[in-house]
Write a structure and sequence with these properties.
39% of the residues lie in helices and 13% in strands. By secondary structure, it is of the alpha/beta class. It has three domains: 2-95, no CATH class; 111-160; 189-361, Nucleotidyltransferase, domain 5 (2-Layer Sandwich), CATH 3.30.420. The protein starts with a strand and ends in a 13-residue tail after the last helix.
Length: 369
């Protein structure tokens, strides 16, 4: 019985009771079995497997030695024996290329360290409802277990162990010159409003919050509407709760914070502009009201960054029945954020611990919101 095998650019014809003398190898322009060029086949796992399978079956049909098959396949004789052994043990899947990456490494973490990393990662997700990063894990490993491990090595282990969730792609961060000359708590507090969640009627609840530039202490409230009254009201709430005096209050140019770009132009006397209610409140408490440049939210970067943290750690992990439920859970989150959560920007201190580094605040037990 005449059989045909298509290999590379050569068609091999042989009989089932073949002998070496009866083998006829005829060069031809016909492409191999799949009809694909060799360059494409080299990048296709399935094509490579079928290519090797053809030579394995050619050898198993009898009449050819492994050396002859190897010469036809342009490989070493030992490679043919490897194909035969892999095919006998695992079938067609054994003919696929395996990863050449090393299976072990001399500096690989021990099982004890791996379990500690997994435990801290799962603990953060269960108790804090956030994926703590490699730097926080490195800090907690040393603090709680006395294990020293670099954050870069922990990051690679998290990737290999599939413990990192899919991240959204973000634009690269732009370089900005540091013009800050703030050194004491309360000298500059950044304030903004975040759209929190919608109620059942489809109307937004608003998160009014502010952050101290030096200590990262955050104060916040949830209001059902956004207006000048809420802006002034929130300033009064912060002044009551803050353990330090506030000297600077920085906002963007929203109409609930300033009328610099609206009311000033409507003033009858430009030398005596109509001031915003928040400007009047700041003047009454002897606070300087700073405004960022239009269209540059990065100048209020700390509070904007807190909004992203709150979205990931609070809003995406909680459900709310009504406004009171939202307020209660937000207060609990702010207590955790100020008193328990480490901040890498503060050298893995909590805002409370950072505040205690200033002498006159060293006896403060907790920050209440």
């Amino acid at each position: 019985m005449l059989k045909t095998f298509f290999i590379f650019h050569t068609v091999v014809y042989y009989d089932s009771c073949i002998s070496k003398d009866n083998l006829r190898v005829l060069p031809t322009h016909i492409l191999w079995k799949s009809g694909l060029e060799w360059g494409h086949m080299n990048n296709c796992l399935q094509c490579v497997m079928e290519h090797r399978l053809g030579f394995v079956r050619l050898y198993e049909a009898g009449g050819l030695t492994a050396a002859q098959v190897a010469e036809m396949a342009h490989v070493h004789e030992n490679t043919v024996y490897n194909w035969l052994g892999a095919y006998a043990k695992w079938g067609e899947q054994g003919l696929l290329d395996e990863s050449r990456a090393p299976k072990t490494h001399p500096n690989e973490y021990s099982d004890e360290i791996k379990e500690a990393i997994r435990f801290l990662r799962q603990e953060g997700l269960a108790e804090e409802k956030r994926h703590i990063g490699e730097k926080v894990i490195s800090h907690r490993l040393m603090e709680r277990f006395g294990i020293e491990a670099s954050h870069s090595g922990i990051g690679k282990f998290l990737q290999v162990d599939a413990l990192i969730p899919a991240q959204k792609k973000r634009r690269p961060k732009k370089e900005r010159a540091d013009r800050c000359r703030i050194h004491e708590p309360g000298e500059l507090v950044q304030m903004d409003v975040k759209y929190a969640v919608k109620n059942i009627a489809g109307y937004w609840f608003y998160q009014y919050d502010c952050i101290d530039y030096v200590t990262d202490v955050v104060f916040g409230e949830i209001y059902p509407i956004q207006s000048n009254y809420e802006s002034v009201r929130f300033l009064g709430v912060v002044l009551q709760r803050s353990p330090f005096s506030i000297q600077g209050w920085q906002t963007d140019n929203h109409s609930t914070f300033t009328n610099y770009y609206t009311g000033y132009q409507k003033s009858a006397d430009p030398s005596k502009p109509r001031l915003h209610a928040l400007d009047l409140a700041c003047a009454r408490y002897e606070i300087i009201h700073y405004l960022i440049d239009p269209g540059k939210p990065a100048q209020n970067g700390k509070i904007e960054r807190f909004h992203r943290t709150a979205e990931d750690e609070f809003y995406q992990t909680n459900t709310f029945k009504d406004l009171n439920s939202l307020k209660r859970k937000f207060r609990h989150y702010l207590h955790y954020y100020n008193n328990e959560r480490e901040h890498s920007a503060l050298g893995y201190l909590t805002p409370l611990e950072k505040l205690r580094t200033f002498g006159k605040y060293e006896n403060i037990k907790s920050i209440k919101n």
